[in-house]
Amino acid sequence: MNFKELREKMVGQQLAGRDIKDKRVLDAFLKVERHRFVGEEAQSSAYADYPLPIGANQTISQPYMVALMTQLLDLKGTEKVLEIGTGSGYQAAILAELAKTVYSIERISSLADKAQKVLNELGYKNINIKVDDGTLGWQEISPFDAIIVTAASPEIPQTLVKQLTEGGKLVLPVGGTFGQMLVLVKKQKGKIDTKEICGCVFVPLIGKYGYNK
Ligand code: SAH
Questions:
Q1: How many Å from the N-terminal Cα to the C-terminal Cα in the chain?
Q2: Could you tell me if the CB of 134 is within 6 A of ligand 1?
Q3: Which of 71, 104, 137, 185 could form a disulfide with 83 if both were Cys (CB 3.0 to 4.6 A apart)?
Q4: pLDDT for residue 67
Q5: At CA 166, angle to CA 165 and CA 171, rounded to 5?
Q6: Which domains does the chain have, with CATH numbers?
Q7: What distance in angstroms lies between residue 189's CA and the mean position of ligand 1's atoms?
Q8: Residue with the nearest Cα to atom 2 of ligand 1?
Q9: Residues with Cβ within 8 Å of residue 96, at least 6 apart in sequence
Q10: Low-confidence residues of the chain, pLDDT below 70?
Q11: Distance from chain centroid for Cα 144
Q12: What is the per-residue pLDDT for 118?
């Protein structure tokens, strides 16, 4: 299978063909080999326009959703970014292409191990993964210029808002377990500005400031 060709098609049709216009974001999606982040049985669908299973009842989001959330963070290359929900590690790799350092938290250790392995194989040195409850954020490393939550939260976790820099951005799905609103939060002059982007469906964020289970 010609993965490079599939990747170019994905970027052209699903991303640039919609509203992904940030050239750095499009270039990152051309570069990162999405098929490396799914099991062999799913590799032939790795560049399709939908989410895929990654084991432990979790999913890697549709490419467009990963791109949309990434574009909203407006990364320039100097940022320290926190991701909640490492999953396959694909979103972390995309972020690592666009920011200075990525910190990523996953609650399921088997997924964190798999993600760490593929990210090592691909040579990423600016991604740090830990197994923990991401709803607590990563206090010792905070504040972050950008935070991305890739699981559905019942509300905006204030622990995460507190760990944003002045001018920092947080993007996350907020709502019930069957459907959510993608929300962009900006911290400006100590004030919080929130903007609703679009409807979306994510697996639940499970933790102290998320869902119970
Ligand atoms: N960003 C991932 C997609 C992850 S799916 C990717 O690119 O593949 C959402 C992930 O969030 C799942 O792996 C799930 O285990 C994880 N998760 C759910 N609640 C969490 C929490 N409180 N802390 C950390 N990870 C969490």
A1: 39
A2: yes
A3: 104
A4: 98
A5: 65
A6: 3-200 (3.40.50.150)
A7: 30
A8: 87
A9: 102, 119, 124, 126, 127
A10: none
A11: 15
A12: 98
Taking the CA of residue 85 as reference, the ligand 1 atom at the shortest distance is 11
What would the two tokens of residue 117 be?
Answer: 């392995």
Cis peptide before 173 (omega within 30 of 0): no
pTM of this prediction exceeds 0.70:
yes
Q: Write out the two tokens for 207.
A: 């933790």
Q: What burial class does residue 35 get, using C-beta atoms within 10 Å of its C-beta: 0-12 exposed, 13-18 middle, 19+ buried? A: middle
Provide the b/e sequence for 76-90 (b: ≥16 CB within 10 Å): eeebbbbbbbbbbbb
* Residue keyed to tokens 């509300």: 155
Q: What atom in ligand 1 is closest to the CA of residue 111?
A: 13
Judge whether 206 and 179 are in contact, CB under 8 Å: no
In this structure, which residue's CA is closest to atom 16 in ligand 1?
85
Tokens of 139: 């206090």
